[in-house]
Structures are given as structure tokens and as C-alpha cells.
Amino acid sequence: MTDSTLGVGMVGYAFMGRVHSQAWRNVTAFFDLPVAPAMRVVCGRSEEATAQAAQRMGWAGHTTDWRSLIERDDIHIIDICTPGDSHAEIAIAALEAGKHVLCEKPLANTVAEAAAMAEAAAKSSGRSMVAFNYRRVPAVALARQLVDSGRLGTVRHVRAVYLQDWIVDPEFPLVWRLQKDKAGSGALGDIGAHIIDTAQFITGQDIVGVTGLTETFIKERPLAGASDGLGASAAADKGTVTVDDAAAWVARMSGGAMGVFEATRFATGRKNALRIEVNGSDGSLAFDFEAMNELWVSSGSGGFERILVTEPEHPYVGAWWPPGHGLGYEHTFTHEIRDFLEAIGTGADPSPSFADGLRVQQVLEAVEQSNGTYREIPA
Ligand code: SOE
């Protein structure tokens, strides 16, 4: 072990914990970095399941007490992969102890929690970052470069949707993502947060105002038993869904663009379609995560042309496979952890910061609150 080895403690080992583990395991095999992670401890609630997770995912040890991770001198990074209701407590304690913190999105369940986290981040000697992984899709990073270079001219429209369908079945159980006390909100915070970040990242414009609408189509669902990825077994008894199933909002952006956004888990047939289109005075671009190695670009005439974002000169791609071989969902997390470690190693502030995460949280809250501005059309 060299001085540049940083011990990692990860809290949570379900879907996000698995994909983060894969990134921690692989990052130094593909990227040259000033610091190297050592996967020291994974933390979860059940002793037996956490021990199994440690073994499968490559963690040297395990614990059921996240506070003990924060106290350890050989743990320098805390990676938070838990539901939103525990983000603030863990992150603030870790930042106060001077640890570096990577936190899953959305940053918190409320603006107040996110503000406290951003304040702790500003005071801490540790670095912190929110895990908005879609910024690290090569095609999305390329889209930002194109907008930055002026290729699109003045950006007038941003159209971003995030479409999934995993809870269309009314018998799908009431998992934590459908409970406000655990998740903060539904499709809005879980996937709407991603399109807010992606739109702001690509355009370099912040959302400065919104008017929104949220809906819960299925108001009661079977209680959830043992969990399994996004799903769980279903019990006979039912409980109330306390979050939105879908959200839509229009926005003004800081550079004068208009934004139209939609996040839903009821887009039957769409699995993970994060789509964004940006229209500028001189050109446009379009991206769909379900074809994540492609970016469509228009120079203003003759429609759109496809760029296959699999060349070594494209963002992140040179570290991987020969041209045309393509990347997947998991690579975005490896890129995220690469960028986090690079920033820590060079003494820079990683991006998106907790302050950026707070801003996203403010947009989410504004969408929920602006439901009140809805006007019915008289019959
Ligand atoms: C479920 O909607 C989910 O796993 C999100 O929580 C993730 O952030 C997204 O990347 C995929 O879908």
C-alpha cells in the first residue's frame, strides 16, 4: 500500500451498491489516477447479507454500524448508496470527520437536509460529490463539449424526459422508492433529478423557475417483502403509495432557454429512456440512453446525423475498448469514480458538488409546490 491508497467504506449494497462496487473494483484497471482506492468495508443492516455482499462484491470486510466506518483511520472515503432518508445523517457525520463523501442522488429527501449537507461540505476538509452518473455517459459529455464550443449557437429549447415502466403493474409492491419517508419523492426525485442534472450539465444553464404537475396513478399497492434489485416479493396486505408516479414541468433556464421535462415510471415499454434534445440557433443535438453510444447532431439543415461515440478521442472512451465496441450503464459509474478520485488526488473540487445537489433539490421542491398553480378549464 502506498500513501496514495485511499480506504473506501461503502454504506448500502443493493442495486446502487452493486454498481458502485463494480466501479471501485475496476477503475484503476482502466484509468491512471493519482490515488488508488482500497475496498475496505461494506456496511448494511443485516450481518449475514452484508457478509455475503462483501464476499461477492470484493470488499475486504463488512459491518452493520456505519458510525464505526467513519471512526476508522484507514477509511478515507465514504460512499453512500442507501435510500435518501439516511443520506444527510451519514454524509454530515462523515464530512465532520474529514472524510471524502460520494453520495447517491438525489442528494437528500428535503431542501433543508440538502442545505445542511452543502453547509457541512463547505466546512469540511473532505471533498464531496453527488453521484449523477449520466453526466459520465461519453455521448452526454460530448454533448456538453459541443454546446460549450458554440456549435449549437444560442440554446433556446431543452426537452428532457426520463421514461421507465417498472411499476406499471398495480400489483408491483410498495418498495422503498414508493414511500415518501424513505425516498423523498417518486419518479420526480428518483429519475427527474437525473434529467435536471443532465440538462443543466449539457447546456451550462441552471433551471431558474418551474411550473409543474405530479400524479399518483396507483394509490395502494401490496406491501413489500424481501427485496430483490428494484423489486420485492408482494404481501397480501396493501399500503398507501405516498409519492408521485409521474411528474412533468416546464422551466426557464438561466441563459434564456425554455425547458420541458417529464419523469415517469408509467411509460409502458420504456425501460430506461433518459432522452434529451437541445435546440440552438445554429444546430441541435439529441440523445437517448437506450442507445447510449450514439449522439445525434443537426447543423441546422438536412436533419440529424448520428455520431457513434465510440472513438478514442471521445470523452472517457480511450480507456476502454477498440473503436465501435461500445460501453454500458456500469461504465458511467466507473467514470464517476474516476473523476471523483482524480479530483481528490489533485486537490480539486469534484463536480457535481453538494451545492449543485442542493440546487437540484430546490428544483424538485419547486415542481412539487407549483402543483398549486394548476388551473382547471371550465366545462
Ligand atoms: C430506478 O428508477 C433507477 O434505478 C434509479 O434509481 C437510478 O438512479 C437510475 O439510474 C436507474 O433507475
Topology (SSEs and partners):
Elements: E1 5-11, H1 15-30, E2 36-43, H2 47-57, E3 61-63, H3 66-71, E4 77-80, H4 87-96, E5 100-104, H5 111-123, E6 128-131, H6 138-148, E7 155-163, H7 180-183, H8 187-203, E8 207-215, E9 220-228, E10 231-240, E11 246-253, E12 258-264, E13 273-280, E14 284-288, E15 294-298, E16 305-308, H9 329-346, H10 354-369
Parallel strand pairs: 1-2, 1-4, 2-3, 4-5, 5-6, 7-12
Antiparallel strand pairs: 7-13, 8-11, 9-10, 11-12, 13-14, 14-15, 15-16
Helix pairs in contact: 1-9, 4-5, 5-10, 6-8, 8-10
Alpha-L-sorbopyranose is lined by residues 15, 164, 190-191, 230, 272.
Domain GFO/IDH/MocA-like oxidoreductase: 141-285
Keywords: Oxidoreductase
Domain Gfo/Idh/MocA-like oxidoreductase N-terminal: 7-132
The gist of it:
This protein has ten helices and 16 strands. By secondary structure, the chain is an alpha/beta fold.
Account of the protein in words:
This is Putative dehydrogenase. Residues 7-132 form the Gfo/Idh/MocA-like oxidoreductase N-terminal domain. Keywords: Oxidoreductase. With 379 residues, this protein is α/β, with parallel strands linked by helices. It has two domains: 5-134, NAD(P)-binding Rossmann-like Domain (Rossmann fold, 3-Layer(aba) Sandwich), CATH 3.40.50.720; 135-376, Dihydrodipicolinate Reductase, domain 2 (2-Layer Sandwich). Helices cover 32% and strands 28% of the residues. It is built from ten helices and 16 strands. The chain has helices spanning 15-30, 47-57, 66-71, 87-96, 111-123, 138-148, 180-183, 187-203, 329-346, 354-369, and strands at residues 5-11, 36-43, 61-63, 77-80, 100-104, 128-131, 155-163, 207-215, 220-228, 231-240, 246-253, 258-264, 273-280, 284-288, 294-298, 305-308. An eight-stranded mixed beta sheet has the order 8-11-12-7-13-14-15-16. A six-stranded parallel beta sheet has the order 3-2-1-4-5-6, with helices on both faces. Strands 9-10 form a two-stranded antiparallel ribbon. A hairpin with a 6-residue loop joins strand 15 and strand 16 (305-308). Helix 4 (87-96) packs parallel to helix 5, helix 6 packs across helix 8 (187-203) and helix 8 packs across helix 10 (354-369). The longest helix has 18 residues, at 329-346. The protein starts with a strand and ends in a 10-residue tail after the last helix. The model has no long low-confidence stretch (mean pLDDT 96). The structure holds alpha-L-sorbopyranose.
